[in-house]
């Protein structure tokens, strides 16, 4: 009995310590890992009208050098390498356009080292805060406090599904688990970027090649990139188990088993056009730790028509199930790549986490050698998009033989 009481006391003390220290943001900001490319990076905050509402967008782009200019500090408390409103570098334009889609509840600037790095290699990267953005925003303070975030983590004991339920359960129930809005928002962002491209008065006039567009995203943003990349919903005749579709009994729902075919809108979509969430302008996709919420996944994966690379990690409690990623990979047609990083977790690519004190104690990806793990995301993404959007194989060696020490599993098929 004494041992049990001691355990409770230790847990309480630990919880108090985490809430007191872990919930305090890094006041001075944390410097993001610098990009590797030859282009200086500019960053700009823009806005668009979306379904009668103002949406904030962020754009990273190759920029003219601004010696001595102050680099931008994001709302996530991360200090990047980009310069706000720097003049665009148009001598090598047009550049490929990349859509970045953030994870559930996060924001467009959640992965600064990743998006800035792509821009430094000659890409225009555009993102927005999706409708579910809560933990951070591009241009405003978050809806979810650091205290709420850490408390949810403690309550979930580091289990990703429980954490999602604690933070976003009410929102998911409110939208009845219909995530197709993500694809619609993503297409609108691409539309807006191409409008800028054609507008002679825009800072991005002539900067993008509309024939070379890719999509990448993290977690639910990975799911978004899969939808716009052409993974359809194949419901078939058989309806899902009613227990799975019981959204009124939310606490008992296993999010990993959620079936979009529970929704009439998805079943109707299959009857009319199972590919209507696809954006045919997207020519390559790179989902990062993607939520893979597609029914009849083997058949759906076989319908992918563009090159795909998937990067995930090895921490089971803090990562999407590898089984679904492996099913997606093995059934997708080539060219395709699947990479798993060891000693990493679902949040490793999201350096917004560095803005929270003691994050290295919560997440394996930040405990040690974070720079080397981040390098894997940087190297593979650039090599992949260079090959399939630019036709440039200069960096393709990394796609043939892994060189990063944290690449645990690596699969490639051409």
What features would you highlight for this structure?
alpha/beta, globular, Rossmann fold, single chain, about 35% helix, about 425 residues, two-stranded parallel sheet
Description of the molecule:
The protein has 414 residues and is of the alpha/beta class. The chain has one domain (2-413): Alpha/Beta hydrolase fold, catalytic domain (Rossmann fold). The chain is 34% helix and 18% strand. The chain is built from 13 helices and 12 strands. It has helices at 2-22, 112-120, 146-156, 160-174, 181-198, 220-228, 264-272, 297-302, 322-331, 359-362, 364-367, 370-390, 397-400; strands at residues 30-31, 41-50, 53-62, 78-79, 83-84, 95-101, 124-128, 208-218, 282-288, 308-313, 336-341, 407-413. The strands form 2 sheets. The chain has a 10-stranded mixed β-sheet with strand order 5-2-3-7-6-8-9-10-11-12, with helices on both faces. A two-stranded parallel sheet has the order 1-4.
Number of E-state strands: 12
Strand order of the largest sheet: 5-2-3-7-6-8-9-10-11-12
Give the radius of gyration: 21 Å
Estimate percent helicity: 25-40%
Major sheet size, sense and barrel closure: 10 strands, mixed
**Gap between N and C termini:** 60 Å
Poorly predicted spans? 7-24
Total DSSP helices: 13
Reported CATH architecture? 3-Layer(aba) Sandwich
The CATH superfamily is identified as Alpha/Beta hydrolase fold, catalytic domain
